[in-house]
Amino acid sequence: MTFSGAESGSIKAADSTCTVIKGELESFQAPSDQNAGGPSVAGVQSGTGWMMPVSTAAHAGGYVKNNATGIKATKTGESWTVTLTNTEVVATSDLGQAVTLNGTIVCGQVINAG
Fold first, then answer.
1. CA–CA distances in Å: residue 65 to residues 6, 15, 23, 51, 104
2. What's the whole-model pTM score?
3. Which DSSP state fits 39?
4. Which helix (H) or strand (E) holds 33?
5. How confident is the model at residue 37 (pLDDT cuts 50, 70, 90)?
6. Which residue from 88, 71, 63 is spatially nearest to 18, judged by alpha carbons?
7. How far apart are CA 81 and CA 60, in angstroms?
8. Are the beta carbons of 27 and 44 closer than 8 angstroms?
9. 90-109, pLDDT tens digit by residue?
């Protein structure tokens, strides 16, 4: 996954965890790759769309976006993949700074909660 804007780089998230409720992906969490210094990325279905918090070392408050766009979850067999396409999140401490995410998160661990 790549990120660009106020901060830029790429991350390879290992140990991604996703929660599925009634056959629908409800949340995902991709922890940061500590060796690369990239952000941790998460998403939660909020009823009207995805709420995306992203935390980085450079921005203590991180970035967030309610009703984030460009997020698509697909299931192939028993595996889930989340694709982010031009998904923008805004810095909580400076609304003028944003990061755009592009790439995929493969759910390594899937929790079926209902």
1. 15, 23, 25, 6, 18
2. 0.86
3. P
4. none
5. low
6. 71
7. 28
8. yes
9. 998 888 899 999 999 999 89
